[in-house]
Amino acid sequence: MEQSVELENYILALLEDEDPLLQELARDTFLNVLRPRMLSGHIQGSVLTMLSQMVHPKRILEIGTYTGYSAICLAKGLQEQGYLHTIEINDELENMARKYFEKAGFEHQVLQHIGDAKAIIPTLQEYFDLVFIDGDKRDYVAYFDLVIDKVPSGGIIIADNILWSGKVVEIPDPNDEQTQGILAFNQKVKDDPRVSQTILPLRDGLMIIRKK
Length: 212
Hints:
Layout: H1 5-14, H2 20-32, H3 41-55, E1 59-63, H4 69-75, E2 83-88, H5 94-103, E3 110-114, H6 117-120, E4 130-133, H7 140-147, E5 156-160, H8 177-191, E6 195-200, E7 206-211
Parallel strand pairs: 1-2, 1-4, 2-3, 4-5
Antiparallel strand pairs: 5-7, 6-7
Helix pairs in contact: 3-4
GO molecular function: O-methyltransferase activity; S-adenosylmethionine-dependent methyltransferase activity
GO biological process, one term: methylation
Keywords: Methyltransferase, S-adenosyl-L-methionine, Transferase
């Protein structure tokens, strides 16, 4: 959710300095890519890094690469021999993300996939200790259904944008498929006995889901 500039600056002042490479990536994104607000940014990125370091995953799946900021944040928690699969439908962003994966030293640990995540996820025949969902909001339910059996007991799924700029508490427009998708996903997770979950009202809302 939106917060005051003063409060955000206070939070930033208490965090470790942003990785210079991530600063460069953020500047590049805001200068050259459409909808740069999709970038995770320093505050959310630091949360993703902390969660990944706590899980210390061998395998990560990210749905929605964008320009690679969140993938780099998540990759910082990987085990030494671990790797991260990241899926992006926009092929125009592939080279930019790859450039920064290489600069970050993760070129051998980050595996890029270009295309529809709903088609790609079934081809990944492995388990994931950590999943980050940040793709098409209309497909969040489908993503969850596709990944839940690929997450072992104790594994974590993080879903971004689950408060959707506050639209989740407004009277939903039946033609607003993005909001409808988020609402359906939030309710599905709440009703699923296989998982427990909590919500961080950070930025646009992060749901942290743990498989029982």
